[in-house]
Amino acid sequence: MLNDWLYVGIFALVSMFLPAAAISIAALLSPRKPNSVKNATYECGMETVGPAWVQMKVQYYVFALVFLVFDVEAVLLFPWAVAYKQLPLYAVVEAILFILILLGGLLYAWRKGALEWR
């Protein structure tokens, strides 16, 4: 039992050491030649003219989130579909419950009008 936790502890230490070592080595070896262009705030694209604040419709974000939910659903259901014949009954029931919960979310979004593109 203690031997199993030793592996977890070693893995935790290595997982903290490797990123810290990579960041430290990069900080030590990277060239340092600052100038005004390098120190300027980077914005992609052209310089803005006028106010940069543009009001966006929240509906675009809601539409994207609904798409993301159902995209993740497809990824999570794929292993169930591949191993369908080897799954016990409770796994099939869980998949059906998962689909019903997502169907409830789809109906809710549909009733709220989140799927209408205006």
3D structure, described in words:
The radius of gyration is 25 Å and the shape is flat. Helices cover 69% and strands 0% of the residues. Helix 3 packs antiparallel against helix 4 (89-112). With 118 residues, the protein is mostly helical. The chain is built from four helices and no strands. The protein has helices at residues 2-29, 36-39, 58-82, 89-112. The protein has one domain (2-112): Methane Monooxygenase Hydroxylase, Chain G, domain 1 (Up-down Bundle), CATH 1.20.58. The longest helix is centred in the N-terminal third of the chain and has 28 residues, at 2-29. The model has no long low-confidence stretch (mean pLDDT 85). The N and C termini lie far apart (60 Å).
